[in-house]
Amino acid sequence: MRQIFVKFVLNFNKFENLNLCVLASGRGSNLKSIIRSQKSGKINSKVAIVISNNSNSGALNIAKSYQIPGFHISQKLFTSEEEYVNKFLELLSNYNIDLIVLAGYMKLIPIEIVRKYKNRILNIHPALIPSFCGKGLYGLKVHEAVLNYGAKVTGVTVHLVDEEYDTGPIVLQKTVKVKDDDTPESLQKRVLKWEHKMYQEAIKLFESKKFNIEGRKVFFT
Ligand code: GRF
User: Fold this and answer.
1) How many angstroms separate the CA atoms of 29 and 32, rounded?
2) Average pLDDT of the segment spanning 163-188
3) Which of 176, 195, 198 maximizes ligand 1 atoms within 8 Å of its Cβ, making it the mutation to test the pocket?
4) Which atom of ligand 1 lies closest to the CA of 125?
5) Can you give the pLDDT at residue 72?
């Protein structure tokens, strides 16, 4: 059967200093690591805004502590889906967002946003996609599943976001060895360190390279 590839070339209008919107629901260690990469000059992009569906998230507190505008946006706060999506789109446009970075965001991104920001939304998953991923596999559950399966390696995947959970094209992956005496917690801790490094690397790629996608294959040239 012939496979038809759709070729997509993305050239940000401005390289080097992308405006990032980080979406996060929880403690926000990836968010903090991205902000630190920015402050230390390891990336040129800046976190322009943080959006969370959880008003008590660590991520919103981190945003506040770095004086980054933080917004609590949850569908429950709006009378219709349309209003909710419009608020999201309005913020992204007001802050000239180039790249949306999901860092432990527990909601599906509204389809209108996925379409408008096609191939400009990144997610990070604490395992090697397509293993140990998908709906319901998040947080410690991922590492428990890896250990229960007896996998010898796990890792980190940075991928583009499409309309489903964890199914978009892969941008970067890093393997992490599973140790015989690992617990879900110890594995999570080791993988998380690599998550912080890999997200920095992925953002740098988007800052400095021309990005091509053919089918599911992502290239930077
Ligand atoms: C990370 O493990 C990330 O891979 C997953 O959610 C977790 C978020 O952790 N998508 P944190 O809030 O960034 O510390």
Assistant:
1) 5
2) 96
3) 195
4) 4
5) 98
Q: With contact defined as beta carbons under 8 Å apart, do 156 and 126 qualify?
A: yes
Per-residue pLDDT at 211: 84
Question: Does residue 26 have its Cβ closer than 6 Å to ligand 1?
Answer: yes
Show which residues are catalytic: 125
Amino acid (one-letter) located at 164: E
Q: Is the pLDDT of residue 99 over 80?
A: yes
Q: If DSSP codes are grouped into helix, strand and coil, which group holds residue 124?
A: strand
Task: Output the residue whose Cα is nearest ligand 1's atom 12.
Answer: 28
Structure confidence at residue 8 (pLDDT): 59
What is the CA 110 to chain-centroid distance, rounded? 15
Share of the chain above pLDDT 70, in %: 93
The DSSP bridge pattern shows strands 19-23 and 46-52 to be parallel
Q: Does ligand 1 have an atom closer than 6 angstroms to the CB of 28?
A: yes
103 C-alpha to ligand 1 centroid (Å): 5
Atom of ligand 1 nearest to the CA of 27: 12
**Taking the CB of residue 210, how many other CB atoms lie within 10 A of it?**
12
| 207 C-beta neighbours (distance < 10 Å), count | 18
User: First and final CA of the chain: distance in angstroms?
Assistant: 29
What 3-state class would DSSP assign to 126?
coil
Asked if the model's pLDDT at residue 107 lies above 60, the reply is yes
pTM across the whole model: 0.93
Q: Which two tokens stand for residue 159?
A: 């991928």
